TrEMBL record, chain A:
Domain annotation ABC transmembrane type-1: ranges: 65-253
Organism taxonomic ancestry: Bacteria, Bacillati, Actinomycetota, Actinomycetes, Kitasatosporales
Keywords (A to Z) from UniProt: Cell inner membrane, Cell membrane, Membrane, Transmembrane, Transmembrane helix, Transport
Full protein name: 2-aminoethylphosphonate transport system permease protein
SUPFAM superfamilies tied to this protein: MetI-like
Gene Ontology CC: plasma membrane
Pfam families: BPD_transp_1 (PF00528)
Subcellular location: Cell inner membrane; Cell membrane
Automatic annotation (TrEMBL), chain B:
Source organism superkingdom: Bacteria
UniProt KW keywords: ATP-binding, Nucleotide-binding, Transport
E.C. code: 7.6.2.9
PROSITE patterns: ABC_TRANSPORTER_1 (PS00211), ABC_TRANSPORTER_2 (PS50893)
One function term, GO molecular function aspect: ATP binding
SMART domains reported for this sequence: AAA
Top class in the EC scheme: translocase
Gene3D superfamilies per UniProt: 2.40.50.100, P-loop containing nucleotide triphosphate hydrolases (3.40.50.300)
Identification of the protein by name: ABC-type quaternary amine transporter
Annotated ABC transporter domain residues: 5-236
A Pfam family matched in the record: ABC_tran
Length: 263, 357
């Protein structure tokens, strides 16, 4: 505990809330309020209704939510496998930094560029993925792999080599050491990375909008389309559905993490 | 199955730094060999070369008759116990102990029995269903030993296994390890330690390492009673190392002639006299040394006196009945001729005084 007296602690909390509320909480509160409104002319929205939610939890919107969930699950799984693999392979070698930078590159350029480059790269046979759901998943994976790779290589650096050496001296080959010792010990970091990748993918819009086929419309695209045509309140309801779903999944993932830590 | 370990000119270097310099050493089947030395002396590197975690730049390592130099660690069939236990935190005690058996594809129906046997041997049967984090340090180390023994290795490597334990627990575990060695007379043990007590208590032979090299090797009694070098004398036990000159019938130290068997040393040659502190008595006697008390420590059963004899520091552990002489008192010390060992003078920096191991 950095601050001891009760009054000082309260003051610190107050400063924190003063920073936190307008920056993080307020925008979300506004979205939540808008999702329940039919008009917003004064300070507060008016004409409370649940119609937007009725629309946001049925038909097209539910399809879009399912699409987003499937995309995010597939993309974070792909990112986790690629990032972990790269981290394990490059551990302790000079390639590590290069690999890290390569994975970071897609994050550093505008996501639109990532979408465009995938579009160009996969538009001709034999690599014809244009117009498939695969290319959307691929784009998301490219965008989030860096986070998985960073998290796993940091955890690998902290992992005491004594564990894998003990396992090897007991007669375990490299595969058994990986599956029974290293990966289980990395589990907390893996699930943290999975959560981050999933959240990033659930909200991805710029690259998606370049790539999505008509039968694979993720929810952020729906939100954008709604706000773009001026339907702000139904867009807000879609956004709330997206946030709540993401939050619930992250909560489930963090439960895996705490269980892994407590073992 | 009896298997020994043989180092045949093993050198290990990290990027040009030689950390182990052409080690030749044989651990006989069933023998406990302690690798004793200060930190950075290459003793842990030697053990890791047997385990397969470092690759020698030259020389061969044999386990039994098998040249294992090029084998990966998991094909070497050794058991290993390290200072920080390295129990798998995500597995219960019984799963930890069963790990090696499963890795070596032991028949499934035998695994439970072997796990129970290994836990029984280390007195940890009651803790089979616990997670390592629920155990104390000493219990964790017992589990680590059980895990290493469960695969019935011919060779057991112990890398400072007791260093993380407190003094009381350490002496209990030491006795435990000695008992295990009696129960498993066929298992060769290579025991790395910087603690001379552990080495003296447990080892059949001690290999003394310093500055990446093997300095001396012998039974504990041999190294303690008849050290051949100043390093051995000072590192195995505590020793007074006094610069003397060999005369016809003894040695000359600080003007006084001491009656010490000179052996084959030529008269007039410089030498070092090694006398253990506990072999020195207070009061008149043979080989008397006179000096002023500069330091006195009460250690319960004994007093440790540091006495300045003609500019050389002599340490003596004397019994309680004499009482503590006040600092600055003139005292006389003596020792029996048979308790002294004459060593060839060290090539460089031969100074007087006591070295504490």
């Amino acid at each position: 505990m950095l601050v001891h007296s009760r009054r000082a602690r309260r003051a610190v909390h107050a400063v924190f809330l003063a920073l936190f509320l307008p920056v993080f909480a307020l925008p979300f509160l506004v979205v939540a309020a808008a999702s329940l409104a039919t008009r917003w002319s004064g300070i507060l929205p008016a004409g409370v209704t649940l119609d937007h939610y009725r629309a946001a939890t049925g038909g097209d919107a539910i399809d879009a939510l399912t699409t987003s969930l499937l995309t995010a699950l597939a993309a974070s799984a792909l990112a986790l496998v690629t990032g972990t693999w790269a981290a394990l392979a490059a551990k302790g070698s000079r390639a590590r930094r290069v690999v890290g930078l390569l994975f970071m590159l897609p994050v550093a350029v505008p996501s639109v560029v990532v979408g465009l480059s995938l579009l160009v790269a996969f538009s001709r046979p034999p690599l014809l993925l244009n117009g498939t759901s695969t290319i959307v998943v691929l784009a998301h994976a490219v965008l989030v792999t860096s986070f998985a790779h960073q998290a796993v290589s940091a955890a690998l650096d902290r992992l005491d080599p004594a564990y894998e050496q003990a396992a090897a001296s007991l007669g375990a080959g490299p595969v058994r050491v990986l599956l029974r010792v290293r990966l289980p010990l990395l589990l907390p970091s893996l699930s943290a990375a999975a959560g981050l990748c999933f959240a990033l993918s659930m909200g991805e819009l710029s690259a998606t909008i370049m790539l999505y086929p008509p039968d694979w419309v993720p929810l952020p695209v729906k939100v954008f389309a709604a706000t773009d045509r001026g339907a702000l309140f139904s867009g807000a309801a879609l956004a709330v559905v997206l946030m709540v779903t993401t939050f619930l999944v992250l909560l489930a993932v963090s439960r895996i993490r705490t269980r892994a830590v407590h073992r | 199955m009896t298997t020994g370990i043989r180092f045949d000119g093993v050198s290990v270097a990290y990027g040009g730094d030689v950390v182990l310099d052409s080690l030749d050493l044989t651990v006989e089947p069933g023998e406990v060999m302690a690798l004793l030395g200060p930190s950075g002396s290459g003793k842990t590197t030697a053990l890791r070369a047997v385990a397969g975690f470092v690759r020698p730049v030259s020389g061969r390592v044999f386990i039994g008759d098998r040249d294992v130099t090029d084998l990966p660690p998991h094909r070497r069939g050794v058991g290993m116990v390290v200072q920080q236990y390295a129990l798998f935190p995500h597995m219960r005690v019984d799963a930890n102990v069963a790990f090696g058996l499963k890795a070596r594809r032991a028949p499934k129906d035998g695994i439970a029995a072997r796990v129970a046997e290994a836990l029984e041997m280390t007195g940890m049967s009651a803790y089979a269903r616990r997670y390592p984090r629920e155990l104390s340090g000493g219990q964790q180390q017992r589990v680590a030993i059980a895990r290493a023994l469960a695969v019935r290795p011919g060779v057991l490597l112990l890398d400072e296994p007791l260093s993380a334990l407190d003094a009381r627990l350490r002496s209990d575990m030491l006795a435990e390890l000695a008992r295990l060695h009696r129960d498993l007379p066929d298992v060769s043990m290579l025991y790395v330690t910087h603690d001379q007590m552990e080495a003296l208590t447990l080892a059949d032979r001690i290999a003394l390492m310093d500055r990446s090299r093997l300095q001396d090797c012998g039974t504990p009694q041999d190294l303690y009673r008849r050290p051949r070098t100043e390093f051995t004398a000072s590192f195995v036990g505590t020793a007074n190392l006094l610069p003397v000159t060999v005369t016809g019938d003894g040695v000359r130290f600080a003007g006084a002639v001491l009656d010490v068997p000179a052996g084959t040393a030529a008269p007039g040659a410089p030498a070092t006299l090694c006398v253990r502190p506990h072999a020195i008595g207070l009061g008149e006697g043979p080989n008397a040394l006179r000096g002023k008390v500069t330091e006195a420590q009460w250690r319960g059963a004994t007093h440790r006196l540091c006495v300045d004899v003609a500019g050389h520091r002599v340490t003596a552990d004397v019994g309680e009945p004499h009482g503590t002489p006040p600092l600055g008192t003139e005292v006389t010390l003596h020792f029996a001729a048979r308790d002294a060992v004459l060593l060839p003078a060290a090539a460089a920096g031969a100074g007087g005084g006591a070295a504490h191991g």
